[in-house]
UniProtKB/TrEMBL annotation, chain A:
<keyword id="KW-0249">Electron transport</keyword>
<comment type="similarity">
    <text>Belongs to the FAD-dependent oxidoreductase 2 family. FRD/SDH subfamily.</text>
</comment>
<dbReference type="InterPro" id="IPR011280">
    <property type="entry name" value="Succ_DH/Fum_Rdt_flav_su"/>
</dbReference>
<keyword id="KW-1003">Cell membrane</keyword>
<dbReference type="InterPro" id="IPR015939">
    <property type="entry name" value="Fum_Rdtase/Succ_DH_flav-like_C"/>
</dbReference>
<dbReference type="GO" id="GO:0033765">
    <property type="term" value="F:steroid dehydrogenase activity, acting on the CH-CH group of donors"/>
</dbReference>
<dbReference type="Pfam" id="PF00890">
    <property type="entry name" value="FAD_binding_2"/>
</dbReference>
<keyword id="KW-0472">Membrane</keyword>
<dbReference type="InterPro" id="IPR037099">
    <property type="entry name" value="Fum_R/Succ_DH_flav-like_C_sf"/>
</dbReference>
TrEMBL record, chain B:
<keyword id="KW-0003">3Fe-4S</keyword>
<dbReference type="Pfam" id="PF13237">
    <property type="entry name" value="Fer4_10"/>
</dbReference>
<protein>
    <recommendedName>
        <fullName>succinate dehydrogenase</fullName>
        <ecNumber>1.3.5.1</ecNumber>
    </recommendedName>
</protein>
<dbReference type="GO" id="GO:0008177">
    <property type="term" value="F:succinate dehydrogenase (quinone) activity"/>
</dbReference>
<dbReference type="InterPro" id="IPR012675">
    <property type="entry name" value="Beta-grasp_dom_sf"/>
</dbReference>
<keyword id="KW-0411">Iron-sulfur</keyword>
<keyword id="KW-0816">Tricarboxylic acid cycle</keyword>
<dbReference type="InterPro" id="IPR017896">
    <property type="entry name" value="4Fe4S_Fe-S-bd"/>
</dbReference>
<keyword id="KW-0004">4Fe-4S</keyword>
Length: 662, 245
C-alpha cells in the first residue's frame, strides 16, 4: 500500500514526492442504499433563526452554483454569489445539449437506482467512489421533479408525460431532454430560482466579478478576494464558508468545447492555498464535435451525443475513397467501425471509446473532410438511414436545431450530406478533491459540480454532468454543509487580519506584475502554444516520453510568459487582456501538474489513454493492482515538486472488471 | 478577404465615444465574426494599441453574452447570434460598422460592452415559479399537453442577449419579457403567480427605462432564437386580465 514516503519506484517519481495516504472519512457505513439517508439524518441541523446569521460565498452560477445559491437562500442563509459573466444566466452549463439522466424507469426498460449507479461506475472505468455515485443516482429522480416544478419545459409525449431517450454507454432510455438545449433550460430554471432569492434578499449577486484568491484564516476558508471586472476594484468578501462551483478546466487546451471565459483560477488558487487537486489528468474527449477548420479558430463546437441515437458513424473502407463525395461511396465500401467492433452497443459506446476509435481510423489514413496539412481529421455521422426510416419532419423535430447549428458553422446541410465530426476536449473529470460532504482539504471550503473530482471517475457518461451539478447544488451540498455550519456562529474576521491583507496583497502584486512586463507576445499566443503542447502530449493518447517532454516545454513556456507577456491598459478599468493573462498564468501551472499526473499513472483508464498500457486488441488496459486509487495532489510550494496523496478506491458493491462494450 | 471596419471605441460610461477605422486582411470565410475581431485585436496588441473590448463567452450561440450592432443590424445581416455569424456573409472590400447595443436601459461599459443587468432585474420581479427545493411533486403528476409544452418551449428558448431591445426603435424589452411570461403561463405550474407576475415584471420593465411596444416587429425579426411576436400578445392579454382581476 502507500505507506512508504518515496516516489522513486513510481513512473515520473523524480517530478513529485509521495505523501501520506488520504481517505474519505465521512461516508456512513452499512448497506449502500441507506448511507445517504443516514448522513442526512446524522448531519447536524441549523435552526432557521440561526441560518440568517450565517453567510455563504458561492463562486460560479452554473447548474451547481445557481442551484446551491437558490437552495441555500431559500433555507435562509445569507448567500453571496459571484460570476465573471454579465449575468448568472450565461454560465457555461447553458451550452449542454443532450440531456440529464435520472433513474425514473418511466419506460419500464429495467432501469433502477442501482443500474444507474452501476453504469456510472463502469462508465468511469472504476475510478470513482461508490458512495458518491450511489448518492448521485439516488437523488437523480428528485432533480427531475424539482426542475419540472420550476417550469423546465422537458420534451413530452402526446399523453403529456415526460419523454426519454438513450445516451452513450447505457442500454436503457433514462435521459430527460429539452430538444438540444437541455442545459439551457435547466440553467434557466436554477437561475430563476436564484433570482427569486435575490428579490427576497437572501442572495446577493455579484456579476462581472472574478475570484482571485481564497482567504484562509486559522486553517479555515473564510472568504475570497475578487476583482470587479468593470471598475478594477479589488474587493474583500468575508463569510463563514466558501463554496467553489467554478466549473472545469478544459480550456487549458485552448481549443475546447468550453466557453471562452471558463478557467481554472478559482480552483487553482484554492489548490495553492492547501486544497488537494484530484486526478487532474482525467480529461474527457467528446467524440462528436465539428472538426477544426483553420488556425484562426477560437473554440470548438459540440454536436450533441444524442445524434448517435439515429446517426450512423462510418469512414470509407479504403483510404483512396476519403476525398470522394460520401454520397457516391456505396454501402459495401463503407466501414461502420463502431457497429463492427462493438456489436452490442454500436454507435452508443461511451465517449472515450468512440473518441479513440475515431482517432484510430483517422490515424490509419481513413479520415474524411478537408486536408489539414496532409491529414484528414473527421469521420461521418450519417443520417441518411434515419431520414429514410423516419420522415424529414421527425428528424427535424428531434435534431433540427443541431442540424441548423452545424450548417451555420460549416456551410453544409446534414439533411443532404453526412455531418463530419471529430473528437475534442470537453469535460474535465478531475478537480478539487472532496470528501463525501463535498468538503476540500481546507475546512470550510467546499467544491461542487465540475469543480470537484468525485463522481465520474476517469470518464463521464453522457447526460451525467447536469445530473451531478444539480444533485450537488439542490440536494447534496445543502444537506452536508449544515453539519459544518452547525459549529457557528464563527468568530468574525477583520479585513485587517494578516491573512486577509496578505491575500489581497498577493492579488494586487500579481496584477501589477502582469501589467509591468510589457514584453512582445500576446496572452493568446501563450495560451495557444500551451494548448498545442497539451493536445499533442497530454491529449487523446499519452506516452511517458511525450509527457516528460511536455513538462519541459511547459516550464520553458511559463518562464517566457513571466518575462515576455504583453498586457496593455490599466488595472482600474475593464481590461480583458489582463483577465486572460491571470487565467493563462494559472493554466500554465495546472498544465504541468496534469502532465505529471498523467505520467505517473502508467495504466489506461477512461479518458486517460497510455500507449504503454493496451490489451491485445488495442483497447485501454487498466491496472487495478497498482492504480485503483484517486491521485490527490498537494501543492508543494513555489518551485517545489507536488506531493501525491493516494486515496485507495474500495469496491464493495460493484465487481471490478475489464470494461467491455462488445 | 480585406475589410474596412468602423468600430465604436469608448473608454468608459462617462466618456464620449467615437467610431475608429481599422483595416483587416486575409479574413477567411470560415471565421466567425468574433474570430475576425480576435485577429484584429491580436494585431492591435502587437502594435501597442489597446484591444477592442467586446463580450462573448460560449461562442456557440446559446449563452447570449455576445451582441453587436453590425452595419445597423442586431447581430448582423443573418438571423443568428454574433458568434455564429460567419465571414462568408460578407464580401471582399466591404465596410462594416460595429457598434454596441443602443438603449437607455443598457448603458455602455466600454467599447462594445454594455450592461444588461436590467434584464436580470425584470426576472427578479417575477420571472420564476416559486417552488422551494424539496417541495416538488413527482414529475409525471403534472401532465402538459404537447401543444402547450411546445409553445412554452419555443418561448423558453430566449437567450437574453438583448437583440430585441437593440433592434426596437423604442428600445422596448417586451419580446424578452413576453417570452418569459408565455413560457411560464403555458404551464400548469405557472398559474398560481400568473397575474402577479405580469404586473410586477411590466412595472420593473418600465422602471428600467425600456420603451413601450408599438408593434413594429423588429424585435422578433432580429431575434436569433426566432421568438414569435405573438408572445407580446400573450403578455398584453395577461396584463389586461391581471389589471381587471
Amino acid at each position: 500500500m502507500t505507506d512508504t514516503n518515496t516516489s522513486a519506484d513510481l513512473p515520473g517519481g523524480d517530478l513529485f514526492t509521495l505523501g501520506a495516504p488520504i481517505a474519505d472519512t465521512k461516508a456512513p457505513d452499512g448497506p449502500i442504499e441507506n448511507r445517504w439517508t443516514k448522513a442526512e439524518f446524522n448531519n447536524r441541523l441549523v435552526n432557521p433563526s440561526n441560518r440568517r446569521k450565517l453567510s455563504v460565498i458561492i463562486v460560479g452560477t452554473g447548474l451547481a452554483g445557481a442551484s446551491a445559491a437558490a437552495t441555500m437562500g431559500e433555507s435562509g442563509y445569507h448567500v453571496k454569489s459571484f460570476c465573471y459573466q454579465d449575468s448568472p444566466r450565461r454560465a457555461h452549463s447553458i451550452a449542454a445539449q443532450g440531456g440529464i439522466n435520472a433513474a425514473k424507469n418511466y419506460n419500464n426498460d429495467g432501469d433502477s437506482v442501482h443500474r444507474l449507479f452501476y453504469d456510472t461506475v463502469k462508465g468511469g472505468d472504476y475510478r470513482s467512489r461508490e458512495d458518491n455515485v450511489y448518492r448521485l443516482s439516488e437523488v437523480s429522480t428528485r432533480i427531475i421533479d424539482q426542475c419540472v416544478a420550476q417550469g423546465v419545459p422537458f420534451a413530452r409525449d402526446y399523453g403529456g408525460l415526460l419523454d426519454n431517450r438513450s445516451f452513450g454507454g447505457v442500454q436503457v432510455a433514462r435521459t430527460f431532454y429539452a430538444r438540444g438545449q437541455t442545459g439551457q433550460q435547466l440553467l434557466i430554471g436554477a437561475y430563476q430560482a436564484m433570482e427569486r432569492q435575490v428579490a427576497n434578499g437572501t442572495v446577493e449577486q455579484f456579476t462581472r466579478h472574478e475570484m482571485l484568491e481564497v482567504i484562509v484564516k486559522d486553517g479555515k476558508a473564510r472568504g475570497i478576494i475578487a476583482r470587479d471586472m468593470v471598475t478594477g476594484e479589488i474587493e474583500t468578501h468575508l463569510a463563514d464558508v466558501v463554496v467553489l462551483a467554478s466549473g472545469g478546466y478544459g480550456n487549458v487546451f485552448f481549443l475546447s468545447t468550453n466557453a471562452m471565459g471558463c478557467n481554472v483560477t478559482a480552483t487553482w488558487r484554492a489548490h495553492r492555498k492547501g486544497a488537494y487537486f484530484g486526478n487532474p489528468c482525467y480529461t474527457q474527449i467528446h467524440p462528436t464535435c465539428i472538426p477544426v477548420s483553420g488556425d484562426h479558430q477560437s473554440k470548438l463546437t459540440l454536436m450533441s451525443e444524442s445524434l448517435r441515437n439515429d446517426g450512423r458513424i462510418w469512414v470509407p473502407k479504403r483510404a483512396e475513397d476519403c476525398g470522394k463525395d460520401p454520397r457516391e461511396i456505396p454501402e459495401a465500401d463503407r466501414d461502420y467501425y463502431l457497429e463492427r467492433i462493438y456489436p452490442a452497443f454500436g454507435n452508443l459506446v461511451p465517449r472515450d471509446i468512440a473518441s479513440r476509435q475515431a482517432k484510430n481510423v483517422c490515424d490509419e489514413g481513413r479520415g474524411v473532410g478537408p486536408l489539414v496539412g496532409d491529414f484528414r481529421r473527421g469521420v461521418y455521422l450519417d443520417f441518411s438511414a434515419a431520414l429514410a426510416r423516419m420522415s424529414e419532419e421527425a428528424v427535424a423535430e428531434k435534431y433540427g436545431n443541431l442540424f441548423d447549428m452545424y450548417q451555420r458553422i460549416t456551410g453544409e446541410s446534414p439533411y443532404d450530406v453526412p455531418m463530419r465530426i471529430y473528437p475534442a476536449v470537453h469535460y474535465t473529470m478531475g478537480g478539487l478533491w472532496v470528501d463525501y460532504d463535498l468538503e476540500t482539504t481546507i475546512p470550510g471550503l467546499f467544491a461542487v459540480g465540475e469543480a470537484n473530482f468525485s463522481d465520474h471517475g476517469a470518464n463521464r457518461l453522457g447526460a451525467s454532468s447536469l445530473m451531478q451539478c444539480l444533485g450537488d447544488g439542490y440536494f447534496v451540498l445543502p444537506n452536508t454543509i449544515r453539519n459544518y455550519l452547525a459549529d457557528g456562529p464563527f468568530e468574525p474576521v477583520s479585513e485587517d487580519a494578516p491573512e486577509v491583507v496578505e491575500a489581497r496583497q498577493a492579488v494586487e502584486d500579481r496584477i501589477s506584475t502582469l501589467l509591468s512586463i510589457n514584453g512582445d507576445r500576446t496572452v493568446d499566443s501563450f495560451h495557444r502554444e500551451l494548448g498545442n503542447i497539451m493536445w499533442e502530449y497530454c491529449g487523446m493518447e499519452r506516452t511517458e516520453e511525450g509527457l516528460r517532454k511536455a513538462v519541459d516545454l511547459i516550464r520553458a513556456l511559463k518562464d517566457e510568459f513571466w518575462r515576455n507577456v504583453k498586457v496593455l491598459g490599466s488595472a482600474d478599468t475593464l481590461n480583458q487582456s489582463l483577465e486572460k493573462a491571470g487565467r493563462v498564468a494559472d493554466f500554465l501551472e495546472l498544465g504541468e501538474l496534469m502532465c505529471i499526473d498523467a505520467l505517473h499513472r502508467r495504466e489506461s483508464c477512461g479518458g486517460h489513454f497510455r500507449a504503454e498500457s493496451v490489451t491485445d486488441d488495442g483497447e485501454a488496459l487498466r491496472d487495478d493492482e497498482n492504480f485503483a486509487y484517486v491521485a490527490a495532489w498537494e501543492f508543494g510550494g513555489e518551485g517545489s515538486a507536488p506531493v501525491l496523496h493516494k486515496e485507495d478506491l474500495v469496491y464493495e458493491f460493484i465487481e471490478l472488471k475489464q470494461r467491455s462494450y462488445k | 478577404m480585406n475589410l474596412t471596419l468602423k468600430i465604436w471605441r469608448q473608454d468608459g460610461p462617462q466618456v464620449a465615444g467615437r467610431l475608429a477605422e481599422y483595416q483587416v486582411s486575409d479574413i477567411s470565410d470560415d471565421m466567425s465574426f468574433l474570430e475576425m475581431l480576435d485577429v484584429l485585436n491580436e494585431e492591435l496588441i502587437t502594435k501597442g494599441e489597446e484591444p477592442i473590448a467586446f463580450d462573448s463567452d460560449c461562442r456557440e450561440g446559446i449563452c447570449g453574452m455576445c451582441g453587436l450592432m453590425i452595419s445597423g443590424h442586431a447581430h448582423g445581416p443573418e438571423v443568428t447570434t454574433t458568434c455564429q455569424l460567419h465571414m462568408r456573409s460578407f464580401k471582399d472590400g466591404d465596410t462594416i460598422t460595429v457598434e454596441p447595443w443602443r438603449a437607455e436601459a443598457f448603458p455602455v461599459v466600454r467599447d462594445l460592452v454594455v450592461d444588461r443587468s436590467s434584464l436580470d432585474r425584470i426576472i427578479q420581479a417575477g420571472g420564476f415559479i416559486s417552488v422551494n427545493t424539496g417541495a416538488a411533486t413527482e414529475a409525471n403528476n403534472l401532465p402538459v399537453s404537447k401543444p402547450k409544452a411546445d409553445r412554452a418551449f419555443d418561448a423558453a428558448t430566449c437567450i437574453g442577449c438583448g437583440a430585441c431591445v437593440a433592434a426596437c426603435p423604442n428600445a422596448s424589452g417586451m419580446l424578452f419579457m413576453g417570452a418569459k411570461i408565455t413560457h411560464l403561463s403555458e404551464l400548469p405550474q405557472g398559474q398560481a403567480q400568473r397575474d402577479a407576475r405580469v404586473v410586477s415584471m411590466v412595472n420593473q420593465h418600465d422602471h428600467e427605462g425600456f420603451g413601450g411596444c408599438t408593434n413594429i416587429g423588429e424585435c422578433s425579426a432580429a431575434c436569433p432564437k426566432e421568438i414569435p411576436l405573438d408572445v407580446i400578445s400573450t403578455l398584453n392579454a395577461d396584463f389586461r386580465k391581471a389589471k381587471q382581476a
